[in-house]
């Protein structure tokens, strides 16, 4: 009889963790209207703002994701990270 409260607590804890993981996973998935501010920040540190914005917006429209920060972190957005040019170089900034 004493194990019943622990079972309920365990089930509630698992449900809470599943909910938290879904929220964290969905953080990078954007709506198209969210691309402009994210790309503006992503390209803020470069001296080549115009091409950076062009490709960032193009990548965001396709992938609905922009990595955090002004450089790197592409592993958080696989589509953005894996899209390459014909020469095999990264397409997304």
UniProtKB/TrEMBL annotation:
Pfam families, alphabetized: GASA
Keywords, alphabetical: Signal
KW Isomerase (keyword) present: no
Signal peptide limits: 1-26
PANTHER family per UniProt: EXTENSIN, PROLINE-RICH PROTEIN, GIBBERELLIN-REGULATED PROTEIN 5
Protein family (similarity comment): Belongs to the GASA family.
Protein name per UniProt: Protein RSI-1
